[in-house]
Amino acid sequence: MPNNGENESNGSRALAEYQASLLTEEDVYLFNEGNHYRLYERLGAHALTLGETEGTYFAVWAPSAERVQVVGDFNRWGETPRDLHPHGVSGIWEGFLPGVKKGDLYKFRIQARDQNYRVDKADPFAFLAENPPKTGSVVWDLWYDWGDREWLEQRKGSNPLTEPISVYEMHLGSWKRVPEEGNRRLTYRELADQLPAYLKEQGFTHVEFLPVMEHPFYGSWGYQCTGYFAPTSRFGTPQDLMYLIDCLHRHGIGVILDWVPSHFPTDEHGLAYFDGTHLFEHADRRQGHHPDWDSFIFNYGRHEVRSFLMSSAMFWLDVFHADGLRVDAVASMLYLDYSRAEGEWIPNRFGGRENLEAIAFLRQFNEFVHREFPGILSVAEESTDWPMVSRPTYVGGLGFGLKWDMGWMHDTLQYIARDPYFRKYHHNQLTFRMLYAFNENFMLPLSHDEVVHGKGSLLGKMPGDEWRKFANLRLLLGYQFTQPGKKLLFMGAEFGPTREWNHEESLDWDLLQYPLHAGLQQWVKALNRVYREEPALHAHDFSFKGFEWIDCNDSDNSALTFLRREGGDRAPVLVAVNFTPVPRYHYRIGVPRGGFWRELLNSDAREYGGSGQGNLGRVEASAEPFHGRPYSLDVTLPPLALIVFKPE
Question: Which of 376, 404, 432 is the last residue of a domain?
Fold first, then answer.
């Protein structure tokens, strides 16, 4: 063991004094068992004072390393490297380095047992990293004086599945920029000054951030993550992100974070081939390499990897007060043959294509987060027909709270992109969803994936001239908000960008000077308001108790009518949709009640950019049976429009 002088000696003595309280044998046992959920309190870098000695405790898992040292700006990146020492046979290397303080840069220099492999690795448990493209880790703390106690207490007693959930999905680096300063991105704190008030004004209940975890390549949008415990330093410090989340909570906005336990990038400074072996990933490329993203796949069968990932999930919910995690690319975790041809994958022990270890991990994750954080959301982006994704684990499900309804998204976008003349021949693309709508707890996503890679903007997908494009988009969003299921809308869709999303540029906020764009924004605001105010539109999103067709067969008119119900004898909400540019006058709809029905929403109203056709605010039901109901309404269905009624 090299002798680095008196500091090394003091460090060894201090470590011996400190070991029992920072890394206990119980910690090691739980870590090696796959059940340690707070590793960020034990591994990584922790600045502290031992007696009169200030310094930093370092710990890293590298079981196959021959030697592990800490290098950084405090020792000129290796002029006098500081050795760490094995903690028994745990595979963890640790050491206390006097004089290393908050703000210092560091990496772990790992010498493999294969003497030809030596690499400087970023800390997998670092709380902060250098601003990319630099790759060093930063000694940091997590202290922050939170002001959201009331929000967290209220969340504990909530059941989000019966509440309105309208999510504004956004990429932090391209929501708004500062053109006067070279197109500079907003910081977390600058976002905190603008975003909460905007979301509250628009009526969204939640915001979902594309991954904020540190990532080397900005163009990955965070989905190629290296810092599973570090918010990206592109926008500020961990405390700055905490401040943003705190401000959102105090404005009544929940925060969902995208989380990526499905794969990680191959960058040398990251998790890949960490200690000279395939530590976090499978060694066999048929299991460990993701062909779609040229990335590595976690080895969910390794206990310590499960502890790492579980601790990451816990970290964002516990330390950063996140209200939910949206798990990316779940399908790629579930199937061993995902994006692989025959012979390019290894069957499970029963000969099947299911990834049994990933299934067990996802169940473990969901059981834990819902037990520890009542009221939070776990959301699966799962694109196949895997059964019971959002059903409890005790009945064989994966345990997620919600699942993205990718089928609804694809069918509806494909339908509405058609010329209205031909829509009547594809009516089943609207009605098919009701055959499976309640098999899962669905969220209806119009996400970032639909406005990139040459797909154009949502507005650009709509057929017809400018007026018809906006009418179709208002119709699409109204249909989304009145269908059973929670809602998700990618940033900008609320005012209709004309070009597809570019992560290197700001949204085109200047479009709001034009009436059609401003009208669309007002329409989304109205949708959010009515969606929140009317329990019939959200209380039974996952049960037939909350939905009833009136007429789903009027394909000749490309029209749909249905009821949304709150339950009991409470008044239902009637939704009528016209997917053609032809107004339908004297369109009769059977209803269960007499009296006046008030028009709550009309996407063709002039204030939203429509033609102004409608029903003068209300319609009286006549005692003329229709659609098998005792009363009926004689209404005007405006062109390319959705209207919503409720009995007075």
Answer: 404
306 is a domain residue: yes
**Cross-strand bridge partners of residue 69:** 83, 109
Cα four-point dihedral sign 43, 48, 53, 54: positive
| Residues pairing with 335 in the sheet | 354
Residue 344: partners with Cβ closer than 8 Å, 6 or more residues away: 286, 291, 337
- pLDDT band for position 422 (50/70/90)? very high
Phi, psi of 555 (to 5 degrees): -70, -30
Asked if 239 and 379 sit in the same domain, the reply is yes
Q: Does one domain contain both 29 and 102?
A: yes
Give the three-state DSSP class for 377. Answer: strand
- For residue 329, is it left (φ>0), alpha (ψ between -120 and 50) or beta? left
- Which percentage of the chain shows pLDDT scores above 90? 94
Report the SS3 class of residue 200.
Answer: helix
Say if residue 133 is in the same domain as residue 183: no
Asked whether residue 171 is assigned to any structural domain, the reply reads: no
Mean pLDDT, the chain, as a whole number?
95
Q: Considering the domain boundaries, does residue 529 fall inside one?
A: no
If 0-12 CB within 10 Å is exposed, 13-18 middle and 19+ buried, where does residue 263 land? buried
What are the Cα distances from residue 395, in Å, to 297, 391, 398, 443? 28, 7, 9, 21
Amino acid in the structure at residue 78: G
Q: Which residue in the list 120, 275, 281, 328 is annotated as catalytic?
A: 328
End-of-domain residue from the set 362, 388, 404:
404
Q: How many domains does the chain have?
A: 3
Q: Are residues 228 and 132 in the same domain?
A: no
Q: What is the DSSP letter of 420?
A: G
Whether 328 is catalytic is: yes
pLDDT at residue 486 above 80? yes
Active site residue 26: no
Contact 554, 560 (CB under 8 A): yes
* Residues 125 and 260 placed together within one structural domain of the fold: no
Residue in this structure with the two tokens 């003497």, named with its chain if needed: 115
Where are the alpha helices (H) located in 183-297, listed in sequence order?
Answer: 188-202, 238-250, 285-288
Q: In the structure encoding, which two tokens stand for residue 146, read together?
A: 């939170």
Quote the tokens at residue 57: 């405790």
Please state whether the peptide bond connecting residue 133 to the residue before it is cis, i.e. omega within 30 degrees of 0: yes
User: Does 440 map to a domain?
Assistant: no
| pLDDT per residue as tens digits for the range 239-271 | 999 999 999 999 999 999 999 999 999 999 999
Give the domain extent around 94: 6-138
Same domain as 283, residue 233: yes
> Degrees (nearest 5) of the Cα angle 219, 223, 227?
105
| Catalytic residue (choose from 120, 381, 450, 566) | 381
